[in-house]
Design brief:
InterPro entries: CheY-like_superfamily, NreC/VraR/RcsB-like_REC, Sig_transdc_resp-reg_C-effctor, Sig_transdc_resp-reg_receiver, Tscrpt_reg_LuxR_C, WalR-like
Number of domains: 2
Strand order of the largest sheet: 2-1-3-4-5
Strand content: 5-15%
Structural class: alpha/beta
Subcellular location: Cytoplasm
Organism: Alteribacter lacisalsi
CATH superfamily of the largest domain: Response regulator
Order of helices and strands: EHEHEHEHEHHHHHH
Distance between the termini: 73 Å
GO molecular function, one term: DNA binding
Keywords: DNA-binding, Phosphoprotein, Transcription, Transcription regulation
CATH topology of the largest domain: Rossmann fold
C-alpha cells in the first residue's frame, strides 16, 4: 500500500479526493491536515510514502511546509495539488523540494496515477508547468553574462598571465579587492582555478589574445 498524507484546507476537497483514493487497492490515505504547520508535524511523525500538498493555507503555506519537510527529511515525495499556475507559486514550490505539481482541476484518477508515479520515483508535472520550466531554462543567462565590467577587465589581465598584485597595480585597486574579483569570477564561471577561467574566457571569446 502507498501511504498518503493529504494536506488541504478545504474539507470538501479532502473528503472527495480521499474517498476516491481510499477505494484504490494500492493507496491508503493514512492522515489528513488542513494547514502547513500540522502537515510538517504529521509528515515527520508518520513518514508517509507520498504527500499531497495544497499551497494556500492558514498558519503555514504549502511552500514553506514543503521546504521544512524536505530539509528535515530529504527523501520525502511531495505532490503539489493547487489551483495556481503563476510563477511565484510554481518555481518556489519546486525549489522547496516538491517532486510533482498538479492542478486541482485534475481528475481524482489522474491524481491517483500521479501518486503511483511519484512513489516510483518519477516527477509528474502539468504541461503548463513543464512549459514554464523549459522557457526559464532557455532564458537562463550564460555564466559569463553575470560578469561585471570590472570583472571582465580582471579576466582579461588574468588571461595575460598577470598575478593578483599586478592586476591590482594596473587597475589601481587594493590587492584584497583584486582577490575578491578573481574569486567572484571563478564562482560565476563555475570553475575551480584561474587556468580553467582563462580557458573558458578564450573558448567564449571573452578576452583578447596578447599580441607578441
Amino acid at each position: 500500500m502507498i501511504r498518503v498524507l493529504f494536506v488541504d484546507d478545504h474539507e470538501m476537497v479532502r473528503i472527495g479526493v480521499s474517498s476516491y483514493l481510499s477505494a484504490q487497492k494500492d493507496i491508503d490515505v493514512v492522515a489528513e491536515a488542513d494547514d502547513g504547520k500540522e502537515a510538517v508535524t504529521l509528515a515527520l511523525d508518520i513518514r508517509p510514502d507520498v504527500i499531497l500538498m495544497d499551497l494556500v493555507m492558514k498558519e503555514m503555506d504549502g511552500i514553506e511546509a514543503t521546504r521544512q519537510i524536505v530539509q528535515a527529511w530529504p527523501e520525502a515525495k511531495i505532490i503539489i495539488v493547487t489551483s495556481f499556475l503563476d510563477d511565484e507559486k510554481v518555481y518556489p514550490a519546486l525549489e522547496a523540494g516538491a517532486t510533482s505539481y498538479m492542478l486541482k482541476t485534475s481528475k481524482a484518477s489522474e491524481i491517483a496515477k500521479a501518486i503511483r508515479a511519484t512513489y516510483e520515483g518519477q516527477s509528474v508535472l502539468e504541461p503548463e508547468v513543464t512549459g514554464k520550466i523549459m522557457n526559464r531554462m532557455r532564458q537562463k543567462p550564460k555564466p559569463h553574462e553575470q560578469l561585471t565590467g570590472r570583472e571582465k577587465d580582471v579576466l582579461q589581465l588574468m588571461a595575460e598571465g598577470k598575478t593578483n598584485q599586478e592586476i591590482a597595480d594596473q587597475l589601481f585597486i587594493a590587492l584584497k579587492t583584486a582577490k575578491v574579483h578573481v574569486s567572484s569570477i571563478l564562482h560565476k564561471l563555475d570553475v575551480h582555478d584561474r587556468t580553467q577561467a582563462v580557458i573558458y574566457a578564450f573558448n567564449h571569446n571573452l578576452v583578447e589574445k596578447k599580441s607578441e
